[in-house]
């Protein structure tokens, strides 16, 4: 009987297995599992090659082809990552837990940590319910027996399995890994970490062993199984965060893009990962507490549990910028999930090309929640009152609809509050229905489809529609609003002050509010904003404050990033937007109200995982209260859960950064680092660039990545100096594979991490933007092992 057999081996009376025996057996199980995965993949590839021949029609062939291609990709095996990382030995009444595998622990320490009841601390209700009726694709070779033990039936979970106690697992042993692997008979060799039974790996504790006698964690080096660590939960042993394997994992040098944390997810993180699909959650976590990791693993978990539903409705991950998305891009594919969309908010609002920059004061207004109401009113204002009856000639007939019914049908449609374009079509359909009724009464027969279409497109009907419900495009609406101060004034009445309106339309505010002579100096045009163009309005409007360069048409207009958000809002009012099944939003503290609405439209029928840290908020409209953000996101009742255990930043470095917290005016719990190993140096220097080059040279003697972080305007100088010293550098967007040293402007470092961080001149980072102290806090929390702070100017007070 091999080690992975369903029942635990009986202890040998003669000689208990030694550590070497155990390790050898586990390695054999790893080889067996890899071979089985290779066979599963071969089978999937063979099916992929012949799939189109068995499909009846082209559509089915395409669907099948996509499904099988995905399946092949999901079964990819990376020999550098362990196929399994844990083992669960459930206790049995037949086999006393203590007579199980002996208390072997070739790396374990004897620390026994007390656990907390995480469900109680997070307040989450985790009664996960599985999709029913989902099709098989997770484990197509499962037998009924395997299904009974794993809870997997045709690739989805049975309610029964999810709710079963531990009893059905008594005396069984499971290896837990990145994906499900079965042998030729369909017996599970490795259970997917997301399977209900795997939950015990993350959640069982000495206080609540969840049926486990022993939990084993494996240590790996480059895909080679090198050690294991046993916790005899049945004897009250528990390592918690004292696990050496966990410590090694969080202290390992970082190279390249982000990796999954599936082997070491902590109980409070697991609570969030396994929260029910219907539940929207907001995670307030200090730097390095694993928010991004939790969000990505939650996406993978939900896809596994609700595969079919989410395959149709899709999962979206929203990140702050391209560099961040490149950094996290590999995590989900490594977990076998290859179909999650990843985008920035800018990607989502890409109906227009952004070619202009708004001054901050204008951007702040455009991102304000009041703009949603301004746009709603602006759309509403297009709906007019009928002024003439409709008369349609139809061969020898003339149909006539009087003003009264026309008024009524416009009012009825208005009351339905449909998206504007649907409303227009509804009005058309109602007019045609009235014409049809007349035609039927006169001809005593129903008109044909072609007749209905012809009537709907007839000139009198179209003219009527263009008068009472004219066709609108999203960019056309925003263009008209910004180009016409009177139209904006009507829509913004009581919402935006005249001065704010003037900023939007580019009117000279002094003209509207005072009688100042022309030639009043205007706000400095931002870099790249070009020459001011006419806003197409009244005299005096050729002095735009808005960055938008209005052309005669929307197409000829140079739009700003904030305009793109307004145009998306307009699109949401005009058309019915599509919604994702689940959206994960990272660095959510920087979302403006209007950006929140961009996401709200895309998650209206789904749920959200919101990740962020109010202390790291750097945008001018930054959040200070998650409740407000959640309201804008359309999920006011989402649970806000804190994460406070830091896995990235060493304790000394974190303590240094945390000195800034009192200045950041946010009420957030500070992080407590799990890491005791880091090195922090703070040096006053006279030659900043020279000192930075020297620091980088010294840092390269260690393993792992090195980043030089400075104010944006110092980056070129630093890159040049490093190049002159023979040190090649990458940019933040180059996710791994290139040079070990990256030079990053402080503005682009959010969400990223490096082993050794050299911070150049904190005072310049603070001075570069209004929320510079928050930016500095972000910068000071990027280091995994060592941080050197170089300064010539005095440090901000709490750091000095
Ligand atoms: N349970 C864990 N086991 C091992 N490593 C972990 C664990 N949780 C988080 N980490 C690691 O800690 C680091 C920080 O995680 P992550 O980037 O998700 O934090 P964050 O809260 O999003 O940080 P930030 O606030 O800076 O965006 C990453 O390297 C991640 O892999």
List keywords for this structure.
single chain; disordered N terminus; ATP-binding; six-stranded mixed beta sheet; hydrolase activity; alpha/beta; six-stranded parallel beta sheet; DNA binding; 26 strands; AAA family ATPase; 800 residues; 38% helix; ATP binding; binds adenosine-5'-triphosphate
Question: Could you describe the 3D structure shown?
Answer:
The chain is an alpha/beta fold. The chain has 31 helices and 26 strands. Strands 5-6-4-1-7-8 form a six-stranded mixed beta sheet, covered by helices on one side. It has a six-stranded parallel beta sheet with strand order 11-10-16-17-9-18, with helices on both faces. Helix 15 (370-380) packs across helix 24. The chain starts with 18 loop residues before the first helix and ends in a 9-residue tail after the last strand. The model is unreliable at 1-8, 94-164 and 509-544 (pLDDT under 50). It binds adenosine-5'-triphosphate (ATP). The site of adenosine-5'-triphosphate (ATP) has 21 residues, from helix 7 and helix 9. Residues 503-521, 528-548 have a biased composition (Low complexity). One of its GO terms (cellular component) is cytosol. GO terms for molecular function: 3'-5' DNA helicase activity; ATP binding; DNA binding; hydrolase activity. Residues 264-650 form the UvrD-like helicase ATP-binding domain. ATP binds at residues 285-292.
């Amino acid at each position: 009987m091999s080690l992975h057999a369903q029942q635990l081996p009986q202890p040998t009376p003669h000689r208990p297995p030694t550590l070497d025996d155990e390790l050898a057996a586990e390695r054999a199980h790893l080889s067996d599992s890899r071979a089985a995965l290779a066979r599963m993949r071969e089978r999937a590839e063979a099916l992929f090659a012949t799939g189109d021949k068995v499909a009846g029609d082209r559509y089915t062939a395409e669907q099948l082809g996509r499904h099988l291609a995905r399946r092949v990709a999901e079964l990819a095996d990376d020999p550098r990552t362990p196929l399994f990382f844990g083992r669960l030995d459930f206790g049995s009444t037949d086999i006393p837990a203590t007579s199980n595998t002996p208390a072997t622990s070739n790396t374990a320490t004897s620390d026994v940590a007390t656990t907390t009841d995480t469900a109680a601390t997070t307040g989450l209700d985790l009664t996960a319910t599985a999709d029913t009726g989902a099709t098989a694709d997770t484990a197509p070779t499962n037998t009924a027996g395997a299904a009974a033990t794993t809870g997997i039936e045709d690739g989805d979970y049975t309610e029964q399995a999810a709710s079963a106690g531990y009893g059905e697992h008594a005396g069984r042993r499971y290896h837990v890994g990145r994906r499900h692997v079965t042998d030729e008979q369909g017996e599970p060799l490795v259970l997917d970490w997301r399977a209900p039974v795997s939950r015990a790996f993350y959640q069982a504790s000495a206080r609540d062993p969840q049926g486990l006698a022993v939990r084993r964690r494996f240590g790996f080096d480059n895909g080679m199984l090198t050690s294991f660590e046993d916790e005899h939960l049945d004897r009250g042993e528990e390592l918690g965060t004292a696990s050496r394997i966990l410590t090694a994992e969080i202290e390992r040098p970082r190279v390249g893009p982000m990796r999954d944390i599936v082997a070491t997810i902590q109980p409070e993180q697991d609570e969030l990962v396994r929260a029910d699909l219907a539940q929207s959650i907001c995670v307030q976590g200090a730097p390095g507490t694993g928010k991004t990791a939790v969000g990505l693993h939650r996406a993978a978990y939900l896809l596994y549990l609700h595969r079919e539903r989410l395959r149709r409705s899709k999962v979206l991950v929203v990140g702050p910028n391209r560099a961040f998305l490149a950094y996290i891009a590999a995590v989900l594919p490594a977990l076998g999930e290859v179909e999650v969309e990843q985008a920035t908010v800018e990607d989502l609002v890409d109906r227009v090309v952004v070619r202009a920059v708004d001054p901050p004061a204008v951007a702040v207004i455009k991102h304000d929640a009041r703009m949603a109401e301004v746009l709603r009113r602006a759309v509403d204002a297009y709906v007019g009152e009928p002024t003439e009856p409709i008369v349609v000639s139809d061969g020898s007939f003339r149909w006539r609809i009087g003003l009264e019914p026309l008024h009524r049908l416009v009012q009825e449609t208005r009351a339905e509050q449909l998206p504007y374009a649907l409303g227009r079509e509804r009005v058309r359909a109602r007019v045609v229905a009235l014409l049809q009724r007349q035609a039927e009464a006169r001809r005593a027969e129903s008109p044909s489809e072609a007749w209905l279409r012809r009537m709907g497109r007839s000139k009198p009907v179209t003219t009527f529609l263009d008068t009472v419900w004219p066709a609108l495009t999203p960019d056309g609406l925003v263009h008209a609003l910004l180009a016409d101060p009177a139209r904006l004034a009507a829509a913004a009445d009581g919402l935006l002050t005249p001065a704010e309106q003037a900023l939007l339309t580019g009117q000279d505010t002094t003209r509207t509010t005072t009688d100042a002579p022309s030639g009043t100096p205007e706000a400095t045009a931002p870099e790249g904003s070009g020459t001011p163009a006419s806003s197409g309005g009244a005299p005096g409007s050729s002095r735009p404050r808005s960055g938008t360069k209005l052309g005669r048409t929307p197409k000829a207009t140079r739009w700003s990033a904030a305009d793109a958000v307004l145009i998306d809002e307009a699109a949401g009012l005009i058309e019915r937007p599509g919604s994702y099944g689940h959206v994960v939003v990272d660095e959510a503290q920087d979302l403006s109200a209007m950006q929140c609405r961009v996401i709200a439209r895309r998650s209206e029928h789904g749920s959200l995982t919101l990740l962020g840290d109010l202390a790291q908020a750097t945008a001018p409209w930054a959040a200070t209260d998650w409740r407000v953000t959640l309201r804008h996101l359309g999920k006011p009742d989402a649970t806000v859960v804190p994460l406070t255990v830091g896995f990235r930043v060493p304790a000394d470095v974190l303590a240094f950064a945390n000195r800034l917290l009192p200045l950041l005016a946010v009420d957030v719990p500070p992080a407590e680092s799990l890491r005791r190993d880091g090195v922090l140096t703070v040096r006053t220097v006279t030659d900043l660039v020279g000192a930075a080059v020297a620091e980088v040279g010294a840092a390269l003697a260690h393993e792992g990545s090195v980043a030089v972080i400075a104010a944006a305007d110092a980056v070129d100088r630093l890159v040049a100096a490093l190049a002159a010293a023979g040190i090649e550098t990458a940019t933040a967007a180059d996710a791994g594979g290139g040079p070990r040293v990256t030079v990053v402007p402080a503005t682009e470092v959010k969400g990223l991490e490096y082993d050794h961080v050299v911070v150049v001149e904190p005072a310049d980072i603070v001075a570069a933007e209004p929320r510079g102290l928050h930016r500095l806090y972000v910068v000071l929390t990027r280091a995994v092992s060592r941080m050197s702070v170089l300064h010539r100017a005095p440090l901000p007070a709490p750091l000095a």
